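Researcher: I'm preparing a figure for a lab meeting and need a structural model of a single chain. I don't have an experimental structure, so a prediction will have to do for now. The sequence is pasted below. Please return the structure as tokens so I can convert it later.
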Amino acid sequence: MRRYKNHPALSFASFIANRITLKANRTFSKLIVRIAIIGITLGLGVMILSLAIVRGFKQEIKDKVRGFDGDIKVVKYDLNNSLENSAFQLDNNFLHKAKSNPLITRVMPFATKPAIIKTHDEIEGVVLKGVDKTYDWSFFKKNLVAGKLIDFTDTADSKKQVVISQIIANRLKLKLGDKFLMYFVQEPLRKRPVKVVGIYNSGVEDIDKTYVVGDLSLIKRLNDWDDNTIGGYELRIADFDQLNETAKFIDSILPIKLKDYTVVESYPNIFDWLNLLDVNTQIILILMTIVAVINMISALLIMILERTTMIGLFKAMGAANWSIQKIFLYNAAYLVGLGLLFGNLFGLGVGFLQLKTHFFTLDPESYYMSFIPIQFDLSDVVLLNIGTLIICLLVLIIPSMLVSRITPVKAIRFK
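Model: Understood. Here is the structure written out token by token.
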């Protein structure tokens, strides 16, 4: 079709689409069109929020578990499945190779030892995790609810300092500065007085109800180890997505007497649950896309039927079917664009509100955190917009083919 003098940049289809989209009188289709726009708005907004929430959940829980337990642990290769590590000597050759790998950011010695805490009225079984001055305390700094961390400047005093969880503090009615006895089950039975210098709350019940953090030197002294004896290495890596690759590297340089395992292997239930979240998200994306497509198909069909007389007149004047189809496809593209605009405003707006205020809360005992976490990724938002636009327009080609079935004679008589 020719271009119009007053609109040199517009083709016949785009010119008519602009007229019926922006300057048409109010008709029944107006309501349907608004419903279609609302459907796309809600669909895109929910998809953006779903991906942001799932990313936030996975990142928060990974950070919590990784922060406490590291990404990879190296322990002695034996049949010991108890909560107390078997001892082995520091291996400088292994340490040098591990630290030379840019994927590995920290290699920290540790040891664990079961104990019983006895206060005036309560008894609780725990595991003492011993660390030294090289330990990365960033996780505990973020999750410390009271007090401070262990001070290793005074080696004699650091052996008496412990950081306990909020759950253990509540169960045993302990507070900052309280002193109590820890009993270590061994031959002979040993007890040590310790003092609460900090209280943490990781939000992961499996960790909080079990672990007390103390000085590695205390465990060495209880077990009669020398300075070069430890219970294991805790490794932190730069990129969690390269966990398996890093684990393969560690496995290749390990002495034959040592073995390694990842945080995913340590907490399989938690990571299996995180994988299920991906499945739920995929189902939500599919359902929301279907809703948006059905709404747009309904709106386009109604617009075509309502403009039957106009279609007949254009055909009588020599307009091709595809030119008339493009009128409605341009119209639909405009409506989809509005839906995408409002959908982005809705999804990103609610997401940023939650990110700043933590308005929507959760039960920490069930979800490991007290609020819904949000983590936006620009690629997610861009791909959702492009995908929604392409799917809607491709699907709308089918109902627009109804134009070819309308004959000029019957259409002009149509009321």
